[in-house]
Amino acid sequence: MTRDLVVEDAEETFCGAVVSWDKATVTLEDRHGRRRVFDLGPAAFLVEGEPATLVRPVLGPRGAPRSASGSVAVPDARARVARESRIYVEGAHDAELVEKVWGHDLRVEGVAVEFLEGIDDLPSLVADFSPGPGRRLGVLVDHLVPGSKESRIAGRVRGDHVLVVGHPYVDVWQAVRPRAVGIREWPDVPHGVPWKEGVVRALGWRMRTGEAWRRILGSVRTYADLEPALLGRVEELIDFVTGPHPDGS
Asked: Which residue has the higher pLDDT, 246 or 93?
């Protein structure tokens, strides 16, 4: 896969040039300047009418050690002095999962991750943080779907120096691929039943939710154990808080 390569998604709904990619997705731009993000996958695209699988270019020297996120590891790297920019996630489980997969990258970049215990107070937290040039804030939200409470709150705080992205799952547990945990799929939990307790009960796990999370987290080794809907969003946040702003900040 190379920048400006013209492809079409396999369902022939969108045709455009490759403008960017991450570990799990590729962004295409059509001739009208409209952009769409697609998940990478086997034969997910058409190139000159023929089925094709887009593969990310290999970065770094051949055989170079990789971190859990798939990036080139920096041996014996000391943690960089923390930037003023931050990444907020909703809860402790989100923070632990991000640390396990992206911890090496975050230390090299000097990015701190903090958890919020929910996002109801996000507008006041953003105001207290005072985002600005050189002081960006990235926020990862659970269950960020159109029409949800989360989407309404996110819309109130987004700005030039604040990026709010999210995954569609009720809880970050679902962002771990079922096969990594050794289950066929995440069970449906009836409305009104606490989601985590319902999952533990449906799976027949005789343990508390905290023990269940330790089991789930312990099953994650690398980014390949996570769903693309989470991978792409965390990479997007890291790029946002570490990359240059159009105004040079």
From this structure: 93
Q: Residue 102 and residue 94: Cα distance in Å, rounded?
A: 12
Greater pLDDT, 16 or 237: 237
**Six-digit token string for 131:** 């985002």
**Exposure b/e, 85-109, CB count within 10 A at least 16 = b:** bbbbbbbebbbbbbbbbbebbbbbb
Considering the domain architecture, whether residues 126 and 235 belong to the same structural domain is answered as yes
Nearest to 219 by CA among 175, 188, 169: 175
- Residue 60 CA to chain centroid, in angstroms? 22
Do 201 and 160 have their domain in common?
A: no
For the stretch 50-99, pLDDT in tens is 888 888 765 555 555 667 776 666 665 555 566 889 999 988 999 999 99
* Domains identified in the chain, total number: 3
122 and 133 within one domain:
yes
Token match 């909703």: residue?
Answer: 90
Structure tokens at 50: 């023929």
Domain that holds residue 12: 6-52
- For residue 126, give every residue at least 6 positions away whose Cβ sits within 8 Å of its Cβ, in sequence order, or none: 137, 157, 162
d(CA 77, CA 101): 16
Residue that is written with structure tokens 């804030």 in the block: 137
67 assigned to some structural domain: no
Strand order in the sheet with 86-89: 112-115, 86-89, 137-141, 162-166
pLDDT tens sequence across 182-220? 999 999 999 999 999 999 999 999 999 999 999 999 999
In-domain check, residue 80: no
